[in-house]
Amino acid sequence: MPNAGGLTDREAAIDSVIRFVCALDEGDTDLSASSLTADAIMDLTPFKMVGMNYEVVHGRKIVVDRLMTTVGTALDTTHSATNIRCTVQGDTAGLTCCVLAQHFRKGEGLNPEFQDYYLFGNQFKCSVVREGELWRIKSLVIAPAWTQGNPDVMRI
């Protein structure tokens, strides 16, 4: 069944994750909010494996605020979602994907002479729901599969 913009349900569910990662790179609060339900849950506790102690975050406003202050407006980044698997059942979908997340300190991403960075190969596991014409992430677990570079880049 086509959604607004002519997307199939599967494509529209996937678009929620694309909006989520693009919002990080663009520092776009509104785009980030559009990707999440009001009661969204983001679980970053798997980052303990790489020495980062994050808690589970509840609620769209808190998730967006956290994302924008620690990544979206604080760093130069690119996030690329690949290997997307999505199964739609009615108004819900289960989605997994890999996200390559490149991070530079703010203002240093474009400098070819400065190569201090932190790169993650992350695994996303999402529950996505239809809300009106948009599909949104209801729950998201992000787990690093590997890292490369300087973790101090992430400390702002």
Automatic annotation (TrEMBL):
Q: Which SUPFAM superfamilies match?
A: NTF2-like (SSF54427)
Q: Give the InterPro entries listed for this entry.
A: NTF2-like_dom_sf, SnoaL-like
**This chain belongs to which protein, by name?**
SnoaL-like domain-containing protein
According to the lineage, what is the superkingdom?
Eukaryota
**Source species taxonomy:** Eukaryota, Fungi, Dikarya, Ascomycota, Pezizomycotina
Q: Write one Pfam family the protein is assigned to.
A: SnoaL_4
Locate the SnoaL-like domain: which residues? 7-140
Q: Which Gene3D superfamilies match?
A: 3.10.450.50
